[in-house]
C-alpha cells in the first residue's frame, strides 16, 4: 500500500501565495502611449513601487491593493474582450510572480506589453512581451536607479521611454541614446513632463536635433485627465 503524501499547512500556504499577485486595478481603456497607442487595451495595474519619481501620476498604486489569483486575473482580462494587454504599476517587476502571469497572457494569445521603470532586471521576462523600459532622467529624481545592464537585453520587440523634464534632461537623454545606440536596438520614445516642458518645445528639440525617436504625448490624459482607471 502506497504511503499518502501529506501537504503541510506551510507548504499549502506557500503554494497559494505562488499563484497570487497584489493588484490595484484591472480596467479596459485605450492605450495612451508607446507603439500600441490608440488600441483598446486591458490594463493590469500591480500594487507597489520602490521608486518615487517626482512626476509620477499613479502614486495611488504605491499602497493598498488586493490579492488576486493569477487564474482570476486571466478570467477578468478575458471578460473585457480586447486583444491587447498592458501589465503596469507601480513597478510590476517588484512582484516576482508577475513573470508567470506575463507568460500565461502570451500563451492565451494576447498582445502583451510590460511597463517597467528600468530599475529591475528584465532578463526573465518572456520574450514575446514588449518590454517598455522607462530610463529615468536626472529630472525624475531617480536617475541613480537605472539598471544599465538592461540595455544590452533590448530587442526590436521592446521599447525605451524617456520622460523629459527640462532641456538638461533632453540633452542627457540624447547622450544616452547615442552612447548606447538605442535607436538601433528598439523603438525610442520621448515624452514631455507636462508641468515642466511644453509638448511643443520637446517636439521642436527633437526636430532640430534630427533624432531617430518618436515624440509622444499621453493620449489618455488628453481624453480623461487624471481619472483613475482610464
TrEMBL record:
Q: What cofactors are annotated for this protein? A: [4Fe-4S] cluster; Mg(2+); S-adenosyl-L-methionine
- The superkingdom listed in its UniProt entry is Bacteria
- Spell out the coiled coil positions from the record: none
Q: Does the keyword tRNA-binding apply?
A: no
Identify the keywords attached in UniProt to this record, alphabetized.
Answer: 4Fe-4S, Iron, Iron-sulfur, Lyase, Magnesium, Metal-binding, Queuosine biosynthesis, S-adenosyl-L-methionine
Please name the InterPro entries in this protein's record.
7-CO-7-deazaguanine_synth-like, Aldolase_TIM, rSAM, rSAM_QueE_gams, rSAM_sf
Enzyme Commission number, as recorded:
4.3.99.3
Q: Which PANTHER family match?
A: 7-CARBOXY-7-DEAZAGUANINE SYNTHASE
Family as reported in the entry's similarity comment: Belongs to the radical SAM superfamily. 7-carboxy-7-deazaguanine synthase family.
Quaternary structure and interacting proteins, as annotated:
Homodimer.
- Any idea what job this protein has? Catalyzes the complex heterocyclic radical-mediated conversion of 6-carboxy-5,6,7,8-tetrahydropterin (CPH4) to 7-carboxy-7-deazaguanine (CDG), a step common to the biosynthetic pathways of all 7-deazapurine-containing compounds.
Q: What is this protein called?
A: 7-carboxy-7-deazaguanine synthase
Corresponding gene? queE
Amino acid at each position: 500500500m502506497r504511503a499518502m503524501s501529506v501537504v503541510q499547512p506551510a507548504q499549502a500556504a506557500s503554494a497559494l501565495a505562488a499563484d497570487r499577485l497584489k493588484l490595484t486595478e484591472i480596467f479596459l481603456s485605450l492605450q495612451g502611449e508607446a507603439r500600441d497607442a490608440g488600441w483598446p487595451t486591458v490594463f493590469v495595474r500591480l500594487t507597489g513601487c520602490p521608486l518615487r519619481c517626482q512626476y509620477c501620476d499613479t502614486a495611488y498604486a504605491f499602497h493598498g491593493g488586493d490579492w488576486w489569483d493569477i487564474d482570476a486575473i486571466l478570467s477578468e482580462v478575458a471578460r473585457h474582450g480586447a486583444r491587447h494587454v498592458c501589465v503596469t504599476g507601480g513597478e510590476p517587476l517588484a512582484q516576482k510572480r508577475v513573470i508567470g502571469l506575463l507568460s500565461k497572457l502570451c500563451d492565451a494569445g494576447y498582445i502583451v506589453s510590460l511597463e517597467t521603470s528600468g530599475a529591475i532586471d528584465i532578463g526573465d521576462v518572456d520574450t514575446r512581451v514588449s518590454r517598455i523600459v522607462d530610463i529615468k532622467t536626472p529630472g525624475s529624481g531617480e536617475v541613480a536607479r537605472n539598471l544599465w545592464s538592461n540595455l544590452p537585453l533590448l530587442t526590436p520587440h521592446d521599447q525605451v521611454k524617456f520622460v523629459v523634464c527640462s532641456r538638461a534632461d533632453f540633452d542627457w537623454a540624447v547622450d544616452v541614446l547615442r552612447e548606447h545606440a538605442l535607436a538601433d536596438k528598439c523603438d525610442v520614445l520621448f515624452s514631455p513632463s507636462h508641468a515642466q516642458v511644453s509638448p511643443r518645445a520637446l517636439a521642436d528639440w527633437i526636430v532640430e536635433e534630427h533624432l531617430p525617436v518618436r515624440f509622444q504625448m499621453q493620449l489618455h490624459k488628453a481624453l480623461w485627465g487624471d481619472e483613475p482607471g482610464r
